[in-house]
Structures are given as C-alpha cells and as structure tokens.
Design brief:
alpha/beta; Rossmann fold; Uridine Diphospho-n-acetylenolpyruvylglucosamine Reductase, domain 3; 2 domains; six-stranded mixed sheet
Amino acid sequence: MTLHPSVAAVRNAVRRNLADLEPGARVLVACSGGADSLALAAATVFEGRGHGWHVVGVTVDHGLQEGSAERAERVVGQLAALGVDETVTARVEVEAPGLGPEAAAREARYALLDQVRERFMAQAVLLAHTRDDQAETVLLGLARGSGGRSIAGMRRAFEHYRRPLLDVSHVDTVTACQVAGLEAWNDPHNSDDSYTRVRVRRRVLPMLEDELGPGVTESLARTADLLRADMELLDAYAEGALADATMEGGLSVDAVTALEAPIRTRVLRAAAVAAGAPPGETFHQHVVAVDALVTDWHGQKWVDLPGRLRAVRRDGLLAFEPAGGSA
C-alpha cells in the first residue's frame, strides 16, 4: 500500500527532528485537537513505535470558550485512540496583567507544559506550528517593522521545545488527518477576522499568492531560516557583551557606548528583559528610547518600559528598576 504524500511529509518531518533521541526517550506532544497538532501526534506515535519512545499527549484547556472542558476530554480520547502511552489534560487560569488574551494564554500554556515536562522528565516537547504559521509570523514582523528578530520567525527549537512541522504545510496536516480518518477541531478564533493573524492567513497571504505567484508562503518561511542564523550569531555576541558590561547596580555606560549599534541595542533589550520587561511587549521604540540614555544623553530622567519597569542613568551606570523607585 502506497503511503499518502501528506502522511509521509508529516512522518518524515518528525523522524528528522527527533533523530537524536535514544530509545526509551519521553516525548510530549502538545495537542489542541486541530489538524496540525493531531497530525503531529499521529506521526509521533507512529515513529515512536519504531524507535521505542514513550509518547505523552498533552491538551490544555484555557477555559476561554464555551464547551472547552468537553472538547479537551474529546482530544484526550483521540490521543488515546491514536495510541499514545499516556495522556494529560489540565485547565489553566489565563491571567497575565499587561498582556493581551493571546499572549496571556500562551504564557499559561507554556507554564503548564513546563510542569508536565518536569513531571515526566521528558527530553522533548513538540509544538505543531507549520510552514504557514512561520510565513504569517514573518509577514507580521515585516508589517510591524519589528526588525530582524521578528522576521527570523519562530525558532525550530528552544530549551526542550521543538517544532518538527516548520517545513510542512497546513494543507498537508489537514490532508494527513483526513487520510487517517481523524476529525480535527476548527477553532472559531481561526476564522475571527478581528485577529490580525487571521486576516493575514485568510486575506493577505492568498492575495500575495494571486498577485506574485505561488510559493510566497515557502519564500517567507525560507527567509526566516536564512535570517535566523544571522540573528543567533549577533545574539551570541551580545550575550558576551552584556556580561562584560554588567556591574553592580547596572550596566557600565562607557562599556555599552563602545559597542556597535546592532550589538548595543541587543544588549539593552536583553538587560531590560532580564530585569522583568516582558519579551513580547518590549518593542523597538522601547529599545531606541533606552539607547538614547546611552548615546544621546542630555539629562533625561528615565524611560518607562513594559512590566512596570524603567531604565534610568545615574553615576555612569544604566539601571533597570521597578517604576516608582527613586531616580
């Protein structure tokens, strides 16, 4: 029997991504019940049988939609039917002051996945983002003028997390589910045009494909891969520069001033995030304002930052401290 190309695409992606795992490795698959995560779970179970992996299916109930608890139970049933070794479902409280609902849900989801990973001592946690998700991320970064970090898109791997499907299209995951007889859940939020990402997916990318020709999605995703290596190299340099500039009480203004602009701005952003500024809320304009405390100093009092933080220059140091402290 010939394997359907879409099923093969998903399975091959999982096999390549997890090729370094030893037999007996514990792997978590985050599954919402959508086509992407169901296809990922099915492929991981299939590959896991041949490699001796212990596969755990995890579904998170954010409690943000009516019937979410029942849907989570349905996903657990689907995961069990696929043949995962264990299932986990949990409800999270989506509360994160200063963050939008999507960002808050993401923070809560990752916190839970971290707890489950520690409980099972898993070597990898798999996320089901596809090439289409990557293209949307790159396009949004371009539209917002967010710089190289956003245009570099989502990382293929970070900490214990991996994204095996970044080279796989959403069409392939949908088809793989259909071939396997898996009924995927269609999140109504994915059809809600009030979300910018949904408008990009449903209107902007199809229009670009029509006007510029097919292959725009693949090209945007490839751009992320090409740029990410550059970003990671610059980030590595910035990490060393941050360590060199750090003193008791803050950063040495002289040390930071001596850095080239691409490294200096990375150092300042990293220092702000380390002090408590939310990464997803710390934008270019914040970094530019902090940079002015170093390169265009004329007695500014401080710069307000997300996370109830502020940057202030005093006595040759650049300090990041809670808003409301003495200046």
